[in-house]
Amino acid sequence: MAVVLATILLAAPFGQAWAVHHADDATVDLFVELGPRPSLVVAHVSGVDGFLESVPLIETAPGVYGGNWELPRTENYRVRFGALFGDGSEEVSDAVSLVDLGVPLSVFVSGTGTTLADVQTAKPPRRWGWGLVAAVTGLGAIGLVTVARRRDLPDD
Hints:
single chain, alpha+beta, nine-stranded antiparallel β-sheet
């Protein structure tokens, strides 16, 4: 069962906005209230690597527009709601994160307890295997050179 954990109030002409996360299929329902009747409503979703996708929203209740979006990866994406009106004017909201819209922070946090600082300060793994291969190869080469020299020496 999905529960709305938070809503955020956006600047006019938008009203409240919220999201509902569905853990069973890794999707998010995005919703926004809009006072004037628009011709088109979308949610522009972007990740840390820039623009990602525009999600079309349909009227789910009077003045409420929503749509479903599948999370490509567990990242706290940024969302800008956009509306196009019959007179050709367009409005775009400020960017808000999925956490701002009510998606639980636990969706984006690894259960391993590993932080970015842990990853950055971790010691690189030891490469003993490659060192051993190099040493054996070097000794083998020395042995071959020694044997080759002995064969080239004249018999006394």
